[in-house]
Amino acid sequence: MIFSSPIIFPFVSFLLLVFLLSPVAALESGHHNAANQTFRPREETRKLERARAYLRKINKPASKTIQSPDGDVIKCVPSHLQPAFDHPLLKGQKPLEPPERPKHNDSIDLSTEIIQAWMNTSESCPEGTIPIRETTEQDVLRASSVRRFGRKIRRRDTTSSDHEHAVAFASGDQYYGAKASINVWAPRVIDQYEFSLSQVWVISGSFGNDLNTIEAGWQVSPELYGDNYPRFFTYWTSDAYQTTGCYNLLCSGFVQTNNKIAIGAAISPRSSYNNKQFDIGIMIWKDPKHGHWWLEFGSGLLIGYWPSYLFSHLRDHANMIQFGGEIVNSRSGFHTSTQMGSGHFAEEGFGKASYFRNMQIVDWDNSLLPLSNLRLLADHPNCYDIRAGRNNVWGNYIYYGGPGRNQRCP
User: Fold this and answer.
1) Which of 27, 64, 244, 324 has the highest Cβ tally under 10 A?
2) Domain Neprosin PEP catalytic: where (predicted)?
C-alpha cells in the first residue's frame, strides 16, 4: 500500500505567516532584531504554554531512552510512575498480577508475527519499566486545542455525520469481553484532521452522555502522531467522549503491565495488496476475580488493564460488542478519499479487502464463544461496506472497508 503524507502546516511557519501579515510586521519590516524573531500572537503563546505544562505532566522521567528507526522516542518509565497512577483513585497503587485468561474453544488461531518498529533496535526496556512513546510539543500543537489533544470527537451515535463506520456488532446480551485477529494495513488518510482505524469496541450504556467504551486496535491518525503509519492504540471513555478518557497513555486511567509493547507505536510489517497479509490479535476481557478489564495483544501478551472504577456501566458488563472500521469525514460538499481498511471493498476478498477473523465474545463464565447474533452496519455502503461469513478455520469473520470517494460515493 502506498500512502501519501498529509500536508501538515508547521507551527513555526504559521507563526511566521501571522507575523508577516500583522500591523507590527508592516511597521517593523525594515528592522531586524530579536523582538521580531520571538514575536508570537497572544493566543498561540498561551497554547504553547498549556502544551508545555501538559507535556511536563504526561512525559514521565525514564530510566532509559530508545530511538526508534521511524523517528519515535521510546521512554522506559518505571511502572509505578506511569500516567495511570496520577488518577485520584489509583494514587499509590501498583500494577496488579495477571488474571485468569478466558477459556478457549477449539478455534484455530493462525496469527502472523507482528512487531513494532522500535523493537528493530537492539535495545529493550528493562523489567520493572514500561515503554511509552514520548509525546512531543509538535504532537500537542497539531490538535485543535490542548484540552482536546488525545481525545476522540464526541460520537453521538453510530450514524453521526462526520464519523462513518462499517462494523459487525452483537447486542442484547451480557458480554464480558471480545477477541479478534485484525488485518493490518496502511490506509491513505488525506487530511490532518481525519483518521482511519480498525478496532474492537466493548460498549455499555446508551449512546447518550452515559456511554462507556473500551477500544483497541490499529489506527492511522496524522493529527495524533504526525505521520501515516498504522499504530497500535487503545481508548476509553465513561461519558460519551466528553471529558473522560483518552488514547493510549495520554491521560491517567489505563494501567500498563508489559515492558515489550509500546501503545501508540507503529506496527510492522503491514499487509499489501495481493501480497502477504499480517494480523494483530486483540482480546479484551473482564477479570472475574477483581472486575478490571484486561487487554491482550498478539498471542498471549498481556498489555495491562482498565480499572473497573473508571466506569459506570462497565463496572458490571458490556451490552454491545463491535468489530470493524471507522473514519472521520471532514469534507463538505463532497466525500473524503480517506480509505478504510485496505481501501478496497469487502467483495474483493482475501489479500485485497481488509478483514477481522476469529471473532468471539467472552461470556459470564469467562469462556470464549462464537458470535451467534452478529449484525452488520455500514453507514455509507457506497463509500465503505462490509460482508460477514463463517468457516472452520477463521470462525466468524468479516471483510470490510473501501476507498471513500468514488463514482458511487461522490
Assistant:
1) 324
2) 157-410
Q: How far apart are CA 5 and CA 189, in angstroms?
A: 8
Q: Is 326 a catalytic residue?
A: yes
CB neighbours of 227 closer than 8 A, spacing ≥ 6? 5, 70, 71, 266
- The total domain count for the chain is 1
pLDDT of residue 184: 97
Catalytic residue among 134, 164, 194, 215: 215
Q: Given this model, what pLDDT does residue 287 score?
A: 96
Q: Is the peptide bond before 370 cis (omega within 30 degrees of 0)?
A: no
Cβ-contact 45, 38 below 8 angstroms: no
Domain enclosing residue 286, as ranges: 66-401
- Specify the pLDDT at position 96: 87
Which pLDDT score is estimated for 109? 53
* Ranges under pLDDT 50 in the chain: 1-37, 106-108, 155-160
Give the pairing of strands 293-297 and 279-286.
Answer: antiparallel
In a domain, 141, yes or no: yes
Strand 212-220 and strand 231-237: the pairing is antiparallel
For residue 174, being part of any structural domain is answered with: yes
For 121-147, write each residue's pLDDT tens digit: 889 999 999 999 999 999 999 998 899
Domain-embedded: residue 11: no
Whole-number Å distance between alpha carbons of 262 and 315: 26
What whole-number distance in Å separates Cα of residue 241 and Cα of residue 238? 7
381 in any annotated domain: yes
Q: How far apart are CA 191 and CA 220, in angstroms?
A: 11
Judge whether 169 and 321 are in contact, CB under 8 Å: yes
